[in-house]
Amino acid sequence: xxxxxxxxxxxxxxxxxxxxxxxxxxxxxxxxxxxxxxxxxxxxxxxxxxxxxxxxxxxxxxxxxxxx
Length: 68
Known about the structure:
The protein has helices at 13-18, 48-53. By secondary structure, it is an all-alpha fold. It is globular, with a radius of gyration of 15 Å. The protein is built from 2 helices and no strands.
């Protein structure tokens, strides 16, 4: 991996506030980083693609299931 590559993970604000901004609940019993539970019953607005495109440009992906 190049030094300029990194992963950004979005976590809902209300989840972060509800967990006192602690990251302990972001790891499963095996120590793996898991954020899927943070989005249960907290789905983003339906126009999230448009909101993100105001900040970051959209680009082509190698997968039709992935948004870059």
